[in-house]
Amino acid sequence: MPIDVTQPYDDDNIFAKILRGDIPSVKIYENEWAYAFPDINPQAKLHVLVIPKGRYVSWDDFSAKAADEEIAGFIRAVGIVARMHDLAGPGYRLLANVGPDGGQEVPHLHVHLFGQQPLGPMISR
Ligand code: 5GP
User: Fold this and answer.
1) N or C: which terminus of the chain has fewer CB atoms within 10 Å of its end residue's CB?
2) Annotated catalytic, 110?
3) Closest Cα to atom 19, ligand 1: which residue?
């Protein structure tokens, strides 16, 4: 169910619980600013979620309010996760759903990283 991401950050959202360790996840990568773990319902052979450790509801919130070093740390984490899986050559797809039109369901910014297969059209018709 897409959610209203103009609301204040909800500390009880699923990814906040994952960051606190209240809900288990498999760590793929972590740095000071970001945490990466497999999506529970993978949509491709490789489907990783990369999230900032800070309290940001969406890409909109993060891009407006995060400090430059947080943004750099998060973006670098995404690139590192891709390179950990040798995806620079074959390629991959990044996706950040934002708000109702984007279909965002969890109100903590996350980038989906899909790979290890041809990914087809960018948007379903
Ligand atoms: P959104 O639609 O918000 O862009 O994507 C949310 C994603 O979070 C979905 O792909 C969903 O499978 C994933 N997800 C939801 N709950 C959990 C969970 O408890 N653990 C993990 N690893 N992924 C989750």
Assistant:
1) C
2) yes
3) 14
